[in-house]
Amino acid sequence: MLPFTALTGLVALLDRVNVDTDQIIPKQYLKTIRRTGLKEGLFFDWRKRKDGSPDPEFFLNQPRYQGASILLTRDNFGCGSSREHAPWALLDQGFRCLIAPSFADIFYNNCFQNGILPVILKPEEVQALFQAVHARQGYKLTVDLAAQSVTTTEGTCYRFQVDPFRKDCLLKGIDAVGLSLQHDAAIGAYERQRKVEAPWLFADL
User: What top-level class would CATH report for the domain 6-173?
Assistant: First the structure.
């Protein structure tokens, strides 16, 4: 997993509440366990018109948001089913940070497990950022995980809270598998001991 320390990036806007994971990545893209190539399905049903052509009104199709690495959105982002393909698709598109007033709990945790920082700011702070991004093309923010801050180009600084354990793991780029592998020596020693104590458990291995 890629660590997240600090990021200065272009901001894209998704001005919708209750965005569920079925819309983030539709069911037809859940057949794969690969984490790449999923950007093609990101917001698939919203990106296209009924005739299959790109919808120029949707943010992913607008030139001003190409290359964005920060997504600014509204309340309860990531609700619905718990599919981990949702953060995979966002990451494959290039988003490393999401900013909203609230996130669905399972989605929020999945973001940390996949190298994405979900930042919760106050509704009025999110609204101020929406207005700033609308007003200026190429608008960027600096998100610093260590300092737990979001800083605008004008110098306004917003603070956010994050669980210390999640913060430490994301700063180091360690997911659940990585945490287990930190104890590889102890796990190996235990397995060797069990083979001596209970060899019948390993007879077919």
Answer: alpha beta
